[in-house]
Amino acid sequence: MASSHRLRVMTYNVKGLQVSRPDAVAVVRAAAPDVLGVQEPTRGLLGWWRMWLFARAVGMRAVVNGRGARTTALLVAPGRAVTAHSAVRLPNLSGRTRRGAAVATVDGIRFVVVHLSLVRDERAAHLADLLAHHVPTTRTVVLGDLNEAPGGPTWASLTRLLTDADPTGGPTFPAVEPKQRIDAILTTRDLTAGSPRVLSDPSALRGSDHRPLLVDLYLPGAS
């Protein structure tokens, strides 16, 4: 008899927890994701430690944090099996922010957390590298801050291979009076995403300059 395995997945640009850490914590705790892709995690000499403390505060563990992941991190809820994880360094082509990606396999599904460049050519180069080497054609989720609105070349490249989990979703940036949908969760065709929602409660408006996106992900399987 067929059954479904559900994972609650969230992407959230926390802006270094510089806007309101208590509200960012409240947002994540209320949403209770199984997998949280973070963009703009805390950085600097003790950035990894501050992100570890944030993970503990929201009841999760940081499985990719710091090092080559740079502008991303990946947190996982207790009870979820992590069988592989890595921090992927991306080349600095623009001379601006040095970027990376967080990659982990959670309950048999690969998650690739991205925070793509503001510079179009660099964004394209990083995306091409990630799609070629880190995004398989099955059981994979790409989530994060694309720094581009739907209709642009980044979205076109991603949606040739993946399905947008929230194609009619509302804007995510800025958090107050948002105008652009630049945060996304995309899945391979063998996964089904349901109940997408851009969070807009008071804590979400105060916690960062982005609104988080949350979806329930289903993996069909045999019971």
From TrEMBL:
Coiled coil: none annotated. It comes from the Bacteria. Keywords: Hydrolase. One of its GO terms (molecular function) is hydrolase activity. Residues 10-210 form the Endonuclease/exonuclease/phosphatase domain. InterPro entries: Endo/exonu/phosph_ase_sf, Endo/exonuclease/phosphatase. Pfam families: Exo_endo_phos. This is Metal-dependent hydrolase. It comes from Cellulomonas xylanilytica.
